[in-house]
Specification:
Keywords: FAD, Flavoprotein, Monooxygenase, Oxidoreductase. Pfam families: FAD_binding_3. This is FAD-binding domain-containing protein. 38% of the residues lie in helices and 22% in strands. The protein is of the alpha/beta class. The protein has 2 domains: 238 residues, 3-Layer(bba) Sandwich (FAD/NAD(P)-binding domain), CATH 3.50.50.60; 121 residues, no CATH class. Strands 5-4-13-14-15-12-16 form a 7-stranded mixed beta sheet, with helices on both faces. Helix 9 packs antiparallel against helix 10. The longest helix is centred in the last third of the chain and has 38 residues. 41% of the residues are buried.
Length: 413
């Protein structure tokens, strides 16, 4: 009987689930541990954030999973149309749908990946309390402590556990750093039916109104929805608490956001109406729930660590960045490349743990070296993008100019 390495994937987001599907495809055993409860079908049918997958990364992983034919019918709820407007809602740039970066809702992607995983491989409601290296003889293993669910030992642990990764602590002391930015998320369902004038404002894809170093961003999604992201430059890390918004319903956000020009007070009427309507609709759809407001963090791009056998990272655990359209793509690419290394080691190692560890160790080093370099380059691109979006009080014109020049140079984009 062939040696079976004990592999744990901590985190059931896109990176962790993609990794699981790819290992399952090659009949390599693994266990995914996820903090959240198992989502119901009803929950997975609700509006969620949209993800545009890129051919060289996210789509490459989907194709390698063998899921592209199942993926295509789940797209189309948000087109690739892209609108840049100033703070008054005046459109400065529009780019049409080219069909090269299809959008899929986070919930639909989760459903697609989960449906291709063995149920016994998923462990829901498992909160990782700590990860500890165990070194004995020449062998290395990692003990994961899940509290009431017990302690379990693995030969390889993949940290897909996001921004505040506990697996990362095995490898580096690097911690997320506050960026001086916050995001409030609210949703309007059935916007075309209820508010056709707002639907015309934001279009069928992504809409961005920029000004005063803030942004009001809309993405269309399931249930004819518009998910609105209020991206605020506020240097107070405790803004949610200090503003009184934490623990309050979404309707409370309107007065706070509009009362001062330091926030959205000098945005134009159409954009304010979009924000106010979204806050009201969010509170009506989720009575008793608190406003979704969170501070944004990153880790320095190109963060590296000394390789240690038996543990590695993917996604935000490895390269947490500001939202840039690349996060899920880089995470899924990480999982694709790491799974390739695991499959190679699994197929070429002799029938023993020693052989597997000795085979996979140099492959993990190669994977991590390439990951760090990709993260460094993507981080630089992200800094440039965010700088253009939030670098001045009137950034919309600069942002529109960049996209106009980009499309003139590359009309196929």
């Amino acid at each position: 009987m062939k040696f079976q390495p004990r592999i744990a994937i901590v985190g059931g987001g896109p990176a962790g689930l993609t990794m699981g599907v790819l290992l399952h495809k090659h009949r390599i055993p693994f266990t995914i541990f996820e903090l959240r409860q198992k989502p119901s079908e009803e929950q997975l049918n609700q509006p969620s954030g949209m993800l545009d997958l890129h051919e060289e990364s996210g789509l490459a992983a989907i194709r390698e999973c063998g899921l592209y034919d199942g993926f295509v019918p789940l797209t189309g709820e948000c087109t690739e149309d892209f609108i840049v407007a100033d703070r008054d809602g005046k459109v400065l740039f529009t780019h049409g749908d080219e069909g090269t970066r299809p959008e899929i809702s986070r919930n639909n992607l989760t459903k697609l990946l989960l449906s291709n995983l063995p149920k016994e491989s998923m462990k829901w409601e498992h909160k990782l309390l700590s990860a500890t290296r165990i070194d004995s003889r020449s062998l290395s293993a990692t003990e994961l402590d899940f509290g009431t669910h017990g302690k379990h030992t693995f030969d390889l642990v993949v940290g897909a556990d996001g921004a505040w990764s506990k697996v990362r602590r095995l490898l580096t002391d690097t911690k997320p750093q506050f960026t001086g930015m916050h995001i409030i998320t609210v949703t309007i369902r059935e916007i075309t039916k209820k508010y056709p004038h707002l639907a015309r404002l934001i279009g069928s894809g992504t809409f961005s109104s920029l000004g005063n170093k803030h942004a009001v961003i809309s993405q269309r999604g399931p249930i004819d929805s518009s998910r609105i992201y209020l991206w605020l430059t506020v240097l107070d890390e405790k803004f949610a608490t200090n503003s009184g918004l934490a623990g309050k319903p979404a309707t409370n956000a309107k007065d706070e956001l509009f009362k001062s020009n330091a926030l959205l007070g000098n945005f134009g009427g159409p954009v304010k109406e979009l924000v106010a309507t979204a806050c009201d609709e969010e509170a009506a759809d989720h009575p008793g729930e608190n406003l979704d407001i969170r501070a944004l963090y990153t880790i320095p791009h190109g963060t590296s660590w000394e390789h240690k056998p038996g543990a590695t990272l993917v996604g935000d655990a490895a390269h947490l960045m500001l939202p840039n359209g690349e996060g899920v793509n880089q995470a899924m690419l990480d999982s694709l490349l790491l799974s390739n290394a695991i499959v190679k080691a699994y197929k070429t190692a002799d029938n023993s743990f020693d052989s597997f560890q000795n085979t996979i160790d140099p492959l993990l080093k190669e994977y991590e070296t390439a990951l760090v370099e990709r993260a460094r380059e993507t981080g630089k691109e992200t800094e440039g993008l965010i700088g253009h979006m939030f670098g001045s009080d009137d950034a919309a014109h600069d942002f529109a100019k960049i996209f106009r020049e980009m499309t003139q140079q590359h009309p196929e984009q």
